[in-house]
Specification:
Elements (H helix, E strand, L loop, with lengths): L1 E5 L2 E8 L4 H15 L1 E12 L1 H16 L3 E5 L3 H9 L14
Parallel strand pairs: 2-3, 3-4
Antiparallel strand pairs: 1-2
């Protein structure tokens, strides 16, 4: 998992799974502290699992509690399907631009 930043955007590249959740969680919370409104770009994510999506869902809730905002961009069909199957779609905010 590679993580790059461009202003308020945190772009993830590679496999986002249980092995990379600690790195992503740390980068995500640091980025939220610095910017307040963060876009997590999933365009270059090859695979994702439910554990990884739970990190994003929890961060979305925590950001909201702290007055911040987190949105997911570039969620492809597989990611969207897993969000629906896990019911985490109810928690996260998806950018409505087509992936």
């Amino acid at each position: 998992m590679d993580i790059t930043t461009d202003g308020p955007t945190l772009a993830l590249h590679g496999d986002f799974d249980v092995r990379s959740t600690f790195r992503v969680r740390t980068a995500l919370y640091d980025h939220l502290d610095a910017h307040g409104q963060v876009v997590v770009d999933l365009t270059d994510v090859d695979t994702v699992d439910v554990t990884a999506l739970k990190v994003l869902a929890f961060a979305t809730r925590q950001a909201s509690i702290e007055g911040h905002h987190l949105v997911l961009r570039g969620a492809g069909p597989a990611v969207r399907r897993l969000l629906h199957l896990s019911h985490l779609i109810r928690v996260v905010d998806l950018d409505r631009v087509t992936a």
